[in-house]
Write a structure and sequence with these properties.
The complex is a heterodimer of chains A (about 350) and B (about 600). Chain A is an alpha/beta fold. Helix content of chain A is about 30%, strand content about 20%. Chain B has four domains: about 190 residues, Pyruvate-ferredoxin Oxidoreductase, domain 3, CATH 3.40.920; about 180 residues, Rossmann fold (3-Layer(aba) Sandwich); about 80 residues, no CATH class; about 120 residues, 3-Layer(aba) Sandwich (Rossmann fold). The chains are: A alpha/beta (about 350), B alpha/beta (about 600). Chains A and B meet through strand 2, helix 3, helix 5, helix 11 and helix 12 of A and strand 9, helix 7, strand 11, helix 9 and helix 11 of B.
Chain lengths: ~350, ~600
């Protein structure tokens, strides 16, 4: 398959954002994924979120590994630099990129094979290092490009398209991310744009490691009866924790947080995420309760979606390393090279 | 007859790992250097924290032979576990210094060496009650005794102790006391000095005494590296640690405490090279330090960096392989895995520093080369260079020197409408232009991938663009020939048809071997290769000699293989001289091998070099 450019004509009255961009300015090449692939819906949600936040596309760096999900950065944010790295190793490349230039926005796109199998270690370490990024796993529970093998997130007892039963326990990346100290943890469903777009917007504004596990049915290999990651199954078992609305603002708003009301949570940069609490005993700021809730929902055969955990006083890798406020890739000789005089002093100490 | 020698002998200390002997032994070595006499010390240590045997060898060499010599003139035998081996290693006529607190049967001694027994344990037990003090001061006491035996100026040792404990002044007097206990005992009980003597000279000059890894780490600072991602592995660990140490001193804002560098100890070697690739893709100068097993793990990313054309610097401090091999012994056995790292058709640029001075110089230069060529650059150190202190020329820096960032298209150039294609060969040298992410709102962005693409970085599976790209990569490699450090020729005093090619840490031993061979009437021209791809000067050198010895420290003649593969040489023309037991190659070994092989070389009709 070769690169396919998307035609650029559009309706003259198309909506503009604060930068004067249309949502077409956030598009990429034409997708070569299967028609109906959940990943394309996620790409669409990413574009919508970036458009609504008025993010300059060229200030976003999009990085991925290998696999169907990792192909998707080609299909959104065409003015962004993209990096399709090697299988499962996107997190390290993104970490390095982030170290080089802390001023860009980093979007890591991965899949369940990419992040839960070969890249499980790199996923874990990027999360625990608090790399400032949005890490989206497009989770379809199957290897699509190699035509239908189970992945590490496939549920035990679920069936492959060929009718084979999966005997292994699944890895729940959301639980893992919580345990590793991620400060923004969410799960969503590619078919629920109302939930996914505000989640991505909030994640983009979050400082630190923001993780979104997005269930994304594979129409070719994992959308059949017996699959627990099919469109029908997920729609039938989706237990939304909260209904979401994202507000960009600079003044943190505090609100009571009672059942049936909304809660505004101030993010680090001053923007705010609004939650509608559906469960009386659910609190997005309690990591332990979030873990407990996930177990309970899972045990009941449901899939918890929504914002699962948020730490509003989060930090990132640069803060922990105490690096210069300027991007390291912009430092010049005077900042970097100690010079001949310093070298002479070093020489003197080595005699 | 006891050996008699002034400023030309080898002392070897046999100790127990973890006994605190390292600093005492270094004190001994530095004292000789401070007397103006060149030294070449080497650690021989186990892959172990405590308990196993360790040795420290000091070659005292007024003639400036800085390679390992082989053999031991004075053995300081402080490890009963290795007694037999240590005693056997002494040259006939040499000296054995040992702790005589417990009687040693005559059968355990040699009659052809001079035996000097000093009751060290009895002395420390009498002088000190604390077990740790007994251990540490025993080491200082034997340094004091050796100072008397070898005529080392005690004042020089005292000064060094003062420098060592500067800021911890309470420790100075007790160490001086221990030193004098040993010195005075030796003066009172032995015929001092013995046949081996140190005499003040003026042969050190302005040279510095430093480990190769520290030098390379400092080179990375001066090369402008801002991102270091690494995973601990012997013998490269101290390189990353040195980089951090120098950065703390030299790259930390004194007012804010902010750091103009980032160091991450990655979870493994795969992540460390991944971070380097990500950082370099984003315009930072980035490196990792590793050894052979780490290089093995990095193969996939190295292929990506080569094909996607991303700068990266790798310091490979080679050790004995394959597999875990000999983790604390030296070899030059990563040449081929680095030259051709990753699957598919790949070729990488290698630099071969000889000593800490070049480790610094090449370390800094590697970052310019990586940016200029947009490809991984390997600085091929080894344990002998990296983890030993060497006398070498002082580090030098030209303040007018600017970082060569290579072909990076700027915002203004893009704004001016300059055509940008990530993989366009605009200048015909095989090197395309790149942009840093975030440069321009509408121009210059591209997609980096390890799969094939056209000149504008657009994914394609067509054959012609793939071939076009691969051919351009070869053109770039050709360009690299003129950019890597050129080989250096040491021409024989008289015309000869015998040539020797060598590289890296073999250099000092080779220099000495050339002189020894010349004295034997075997004249050789020696070419020290300092970079791969090989410049035309290497091919010409081989063509100009009937027979060329390739001296290296591995089993399979890896540089020789590379020469055959890349330069189209007749295999019969290159004769391998190989040393690979994990110890540094010696001039004695090279001399013996070449003398033996040169004597049977016939002089057939001149072979034509294959083109």
């Amino acid at each position: 398959m070769t690169y396919l450019a998307k035609p650029k004509f559009h309706h003259p009255a198309i909506e503009l954002n604060d930068l004067g961009f249309t949502h077409r300015d956030y598009e990429g090449a034409i997708s070569t994924l299967c028609a109906g692939c959940g990943h394309d819906s996620i790409s669409s949600a990413i574009m919508r979120a970036c458009f609504e936040l008025s993010l300059p596309p060229h200030r976003i760096a999009k990085l991925s590994g290998i696999g169907c999900s990792s192909k998707t950065p080609t299909y959104f944010l065409g003015q962004s630099h993209g990096f399709n790295s090697v299988h499962g190793r996107m997190p390290s490349v993104l970490t390095g990129a982030n170290l080089a230039n802390r001023d860009l926005i980093y979007l890591g796109v991965s899949g369940d094979g990419d992040s839960a199998s070969i890249g499980f270690g790199q996923f874990a370490h990027a999360i625990r290092r608090a790399v400032n990024m949005v890490y989206i796993v497009e989770n379809n529970g199957v290897y699509g490009l190699t035509k239908g093998q189970f992945s590490a997130t496939s549920d035990r007892g679920s069936k492959s398209k060929k009718g084979v039963m999966n005997a292994d326990s699944p890895i729940d990346l959301v639980t893992i991310a919580l345990q590793l100290g991620a400060t923004f943890v969410a799960r969503s469903f590619s078919g629920d744009k109302d939930q996914l777009v505000p989640l991505i917007k909030a994640a983009l504004e979050h400082k630190g490691a923001a993780f979104i596990d997005c269930i994304s049915p594979c129409v070719a290999f994992n959308n059949h009866e017996g699959s627990t990651k099919s469109f029908d199954y997920v729609r039938a078992h989706n237990a939304a924790l909260n209904s979401l609305d994202f507000i960009t603002g600079r003044a943190p708003i505090t609100a009571d947080y009672a059942e049936g009301t909304t809660q505004d949570i101030a993010l680090h940069d001053g923007s705010t995420i609004r939650l509608r609490k559906l469960s009386l005993d659910y609190d997005v700021s309690d990591r332990g309760a979030a873990l407990n809730h996930l177990y309970q929902v899972h045990a009941s055969g449901e899939i918890a979606t929504g914002l699962i955990y948020l730490e509003d006083d989060s930090s990132d890798l640069h803060e922990r390393l105490n690096t210069d406020e300027r991007p390291l890739n912009a430092l010049a000789e005077a900042d970097l090279i100690p010079g001949a005089a310093a070298l002479a002093r070093i020489n003197a100490g080595l005699r | 007859m006891p050996i008699e020698s002034v400023n030309d002998f080898v002392v070897r200390f046999a100790n127990v790992n973890g006994s605190g002997s390292a600093s005492a032994n270094q004190l001994f070595a530095r004292a000789i250097m401070r007397m103006g006499v060149p030294i070449a010390p080497r650690n021989i240590f186990p892959s172990n924290i405590q308990g196993l045997p360790t040795w420290y060898e000091v070659r005292v060499t007024e003639a400036d032979h800085l390679g390992a010599r082989g053999g031991t003139d004075l053995m300081v035998a402080m490890n009963p576990q290795t007694w037999d081996k240590d005693v056997a290693a002494i040259e006939p006529g040499g000296y054995l210094f040992y702790d005589s607190s417990r009687p040693i049967p005559a059968s355990k001694l040699r009659t052809d060496v001079s035996v000097i027994g000093m009751p060290l344990t009895d002395i420390v037990n009498r002088e000190y009650s604390d077990p740790r003090q007994r251990q540490l001061f025993k080491n200082i006491i034997y340094v004091g005794a050796l100072a008397a035996l070898l005529d080392i100026e005690i004042g020089v040792v005292e000064t060094l102790i003062g420098e060592q404990f500067k800021g911890k002044d309470k420790l100075i007097a007790p160490n001086h006391r221990a030193l004098h206990i040993g010195f005075d005992y030796a003066k009172a009980n032995f015929a001092c000095p013995i046949g081996l003597r140190v005499r003040r000279a003026d042969k050190v000059g302005d040279r510095i005494f430093v480990e190769g890894n520290a030098a390379a780490g400092l080179g990375a600072v001066y090369g402008g590296a801002t991102v270091c991602a690494w995973y601990p592995i012997t013998p490269s660990t101290s390189l990353a640690e040195a980089f951090e140490r120098y950065c703390v001193r030299l790259r930390t804002d004194p007012d804010t405490g902010k750091r103009r560098y980032a160091i991450v100890q990655a979870e493994d070697e795969l992540a460390s090279i991944g971070m380097v690739v990500g950082a370099a893709w984003n315009g930072a100068r980035a490196f990792t330090a590793t050894s052979g097993p780490g290089i093995s793990l990095m193969q996939e990313f190295l292929g990506l960096a080569y094909f996607a054309e991303i700068p990266a610097v790798l310091f490979d401090v080679q050790r004995g392989g394959p597999s875990t091999g000999m983790p604390t012994r030296t070899q030059q056995s990563d040449i081929l895995i680095c030259a051709y790292a990753a699957h598919g058709d790949t070729k990488h640029v290698l630099l071969f520093p000889r000593d800490p001075h070049e480790a610094f110089t090449f370390g800094a230069q590697a970052f310019d080369l990586a940016d200029r060529l947009q490809t991984p650059i390997f600085v091929m150190l080894d344990l002998d260079i990296g983890m030993n202190q060497h006398l070498c020329a002082p580090f030098a820096w030209d303040d007018a020197r600017l970082l060569d960032r290579g072909k990076v298209m700027t915002h203004d150039e893009l704004e001016a409408g300059r055509d940008f294609g990530r993989y366009l060969d605009v200048d015909g040298d095989g090197i395309p232009y790149r942009t840093y992410p975030g440069t321009h709102p509408s121009r210059g962005s591209f997609f980096t991938r390890g799969s094939t693409r056209d000149r504008y970085a657009r994914y394609t599976e067509e054959g012609a663009p793939y071939v076009d790209n691969m051919e351009r990569l070869l053109r770039k490699f050709e360009t690299a020939k003129a950019l890597v450090p050129p080989p250096l020729l040491d021409k024989a005093a008289q015309p000869t048809r015998i040539g020797v090619i060598h590289y890296g840490s073999t250099g000092p031993a080779m220099d000495e071997a050339v002189r020894l061979l010349g004295a034997d009437g075997v004249h050789v021209d020696a070419l020290r290769v300092r970079g791969f791809p090989f410049s035309h000067a290497v091919t010409d050198f081989i063509a100009d000699h009937e027979q060329v010895f390739v001296v290296e420290q591995n089993r399979d003649g890896q540089l020789r293989t590379l020469l055959l593969a890349e330069c189209g040489i007749d295999p019969a023309q290159l004769v391998a001289v190989l040393h690979y037991d994990g110890t540094p190659i010696t001039a004695r070994f090279i001399r013996r091998e070449i003398a033996a092989k040169a004597s049977v070389i016939r002089t057939p009709a001149r072979r034509e070099v294959l083109s």
